[in-house]
Design brief:
With about 280 residues, the protein is α+β, with helices and mostly antiparallel strands. The protein contains 11 helices and 14 strands. A 5-stranded antiparallel β-sheet has the order 4-5-10-6-7. Strands 11-12-13-14 form a 4-stranded antiparallel β-sheet. It has a 3-stranded parallel β-sheet with strand order 1-3-2, with helices on one face. The longest helix has 22 residues.
Length: about 280
């Protein structure tokens, strides 16, 4: 049976996790951890509940430069926060697709990415938005770009004994827009079959984040300025960008179906992001 520890400080939490090594697990929302415990797919030696730590970073801190999000910031809080809604609409869309209302009321943004799932719903928009993460250990803190955070299935830069304390999001450039699109087998409670996020700058430069089509969430290179109203030219560029995807066939979908739906969802996300640059009606 797992031991349960509720430290009063981050220092105590990090010391306990360092001692537990591979056997330690962090509890904040617990939407994945509790499921794993119930199904006996996770059997940690120690569960460290961070909710009582008095020196956790604030759930969200907003400055002119951007927003920093702490471990306790839930998906519901993210979706309803006015600054997040204004600056990061693509992230709001992705968070709104996570699980059910009950799950979103408990699940945290940091927890969603720390699981390291290639299908993590919020990973593609965080990638295109230029996010970074701060990781704490008994040896100190370091900050790494989100583009370097994901290493492979269930593997991230946050190793045993460490805690992601914040996600940092730069304020989007004026005239830019973002959007996310996702496909699942059934609405609301299933893992994404394919997901995509798009960021379009004022001059038409395009950046894509892709989920569930590779061993980790993927980030494309940024394109040169595009004439997005030129349909054939846009499709050609998207096809080139999507060569990065390496989907597999599994219980959720075939490889061929993922490729076909990814192309369609990407175009929708790009056009929606482009429309949001000038607050036009959202594309469907």
């Amino acid at each position: 049976m797992s031991k349960y520890y509720r430290p009063a400080s981050m220092a105590d939490a990090l010391t306990a996790l360092a001692a537990a090594g591979e056997g330690g697990r962090i509890l904040i929302g617990g939407t994945d951890l509790i499921v794993g415990l119930r199904h006996h797919t996770l059997q940690p030696d120690l569960i460290v509940d961070l909710k009582n730590a008095q020196d956790l970073p604030e759930p969200i801190t907003v400055t002119d430069a951007g927003a920093s999000i702490g471990p306790t910031f839930t998906m519901t809080e993210l979706i309803t926060h006015p600054v997040v809604q204004e600056w990061y609409p693509g992230l709001v869309e992705a968070a709104g697709s996570v699980g059910s209302v009950a799950i979103r009321n408990r699940a945290s943004l940091i927890g969603n990415v720390c699981n390291g799932s290639p299908a993590a719903d919020t990973a593609p928009p965080l990638l295109v938005l230029g996010a970074s993460v701060t990781i704490a250990s008994v040896d100190g803190e370091r900050t790494v770009p989100m583009s370097e955070f994901f290493l492979g299935p269930r593997r991230t830069q946050c190793t045993p004994g460490q805690i992601v304390t914040q996600i940092h999001l730069p304020r989007p450039a004026d005239g830019s827009g973002s959007a996310s699109r996702r496909l699942t087998r059934r609405r609301g409670v299933d893992i994404a079959t394919v997901s995509v996020a798009a960021q379009v700058d004022a001059d038409g430069k395009l950046l894509l984040g892709l989920g569930a089509v590779g061993p980790r969430p993927l980030l494309t290179g940024q394109t040169d300025p595009l004439a997005l109203e030129d349909g054939p030219a846009l499709i050609k560029v998207l096809d080139e960008l999507l060569e990065l995807a390496t989907p597999i066939s599994d219980v959720r979908s075939s490889r061929e179906y993922r490729i076909a739906t990814l192309r369609a969802l990407t175009k929708r996300a790009v056009l929606t992001a482009a429309n949001r640059r000038t607050n036009k009606e959202m594309a469907s």
